[in-house]
Amino acid sequence: MRDHPSLHALALVCSLKASPEPSSSEKLAREVLAALEEQGASHEVVRVVDHDVKPGVEVDMGDGDEWPQIREKLLAADILVFATPTWVGHMTSVAQGVLERLDGELSETDDTGRPVITGKVAVVAVVGNEDGAHHISADAFQALSDVGFTIPAQGVTYWNGEAMSGVDYNDLDETPGAVASATQTLAENAAHLARLLKAEPYS
């Protein structure tokens, strides 16, 4: 890995819980980041609800909007980890708000007319004690691709607990083998793709 370009990953955790309350989606996001660290990537976590992110579809909504500071971290990253819990079968309102703010990137283009985030890789992590991970990842991948991110093969990891059991991912004593395997594959594929795009950007 020493011969490869260095990488940096940013996890945007879209929990409804403010810090320091435990968050299952943050737990899974940090497991993804740990797997990416094994691939040589540094990383950072932002729990979006801890910041005053205004609703809207511009890169700066003014009046105390803190999205521009988060956006600077995004622009400095090679890989985005988009993490959300499942509520009533859908991503959280916080996650939807992040996708709406990312829509502003369509107006922020480089000399070729592409969004400036083109060439960055995005992966998704979903937790929930109800079904919905496939639906959420499908919606997220479409939106992230629309604004310029590139999606790697098998770029999602998720955990769905037993329906109506009340058991959260945070409650587990250890990571299930299937989740750990999916997370590892996600990290390997994301890092590989990010290095390729960093070495040879879209032209």
Automatic annotation (TrEMBL):
Transmembrane segments: none
Top-level lineage group: Bacteria
Domain NADPH-dependent FMN reductase-like, chain residue ranges per copy: 11-154
InterPro entries with a match to the protein in the record: Flavoprotein-like_sf, FMN_Rdtase-like_dom
Matching SUPFAM superfamilies: Flavoproteins
GO molecular function: oxidoreductase activity
One Pfam assignment: FMN_red
The protein's name: Multimeric flavodoxin WrbA
Gene source species: Petropleomorpha daqingensis
